[in-house]
Amino acid sequence: LVGTGIELPPLWPGDASGNKVWEDEAQAGRQLFRIFYSLIAAATLQAAFVAYVVALPDSPSLIEPLSQPARGALLAIGCVAQGIAIASLANPSPLSLVPGFKTDPKAFGGLIRDDSLKLRAFGLTRMTRHPLILPVVPWAVANGFLAGGRLVDIVLFGGIAVYALAGCWAQDLRARESAAVGTVFARGDLTQFYETTSFVPFQALFDGRQSWSACFAELSWLSLIIGIALGTALEFATASALS
Question: Under a CB-based contact definition with an 8 Å cutoff, are residues 239 and 75 in contact?
Fold first, then answer.
């Protein structure tokens, strides 16, 4: 498939390099890695949930029953965490599979794909370079307690939190080496992005590498509102299923 000249349909908003599919071996390798990684991750997660359900009846609780204020606080953490992750899908990032777009009145739909926009910190990536995956950590911790704090709850949700942290760390290592934009029709230098952003949330803002005013000015508040609304619905559905 590499170098065959196969192209995406003209209506697809290709980036500056055009609509060619798997133009070279490096691009094909990255896309195949994502496909197989996603399949393996989905299968592993499904197996973990099956084992969780099987082991649940015999698992001892490690915590006292939650008070209503504690339960409310944990629910709020889960809602906001999911909301931020959902909102991040509309935020340009070189570590995201979501393409970057800019307005162009001559283009179909008024938009043209431009992944170079993802090479600079913007909005949520001024807070952390991993606004999609890192919120999984507080979400998993909160739901481990909401589920009952049993041994299997801690193992499953604690494992998800560790997996999210390890995944972000590994993603940083891969991106530093390949300097490839996440989606990835084009390549670009990620040096500045990594020098001016932080793995730890808010670190780059507190140490002066990023601007608080620019961060809040660039945030899509509509995306956050929609994300938190969807996240709240998902969190209450999750809490109901776990109770």
Answer: yes
Residue identified by tokens 């359900």 is 53
Q: Considering the entire predicted model, what is its pTM?
A: 0.83
Tokens of 110: 């008024």
What residue has token string 């196969």? 6
pLDDT tens for 13-44 read 444 455 666 666 766 777 777 788 889 989 99
Report d(CA 115, CA 213) in Å as an integer.
24
Measured distance CA(87)–CA(111) in Å, rounded: 20
From the list 79, 123, 117, the residue with the least C-alpha distance to 98 is: 117
Is the CB of residue 114 less than 8 Å from the CB of residue 188? no
Compute φ and ψ for 93, nearest 5 degrees.
-155, 135
Residue 82 CA: distances (Å) to CA of 131, 157, 203, 227, 238: 10, 15, 21, 7, 11
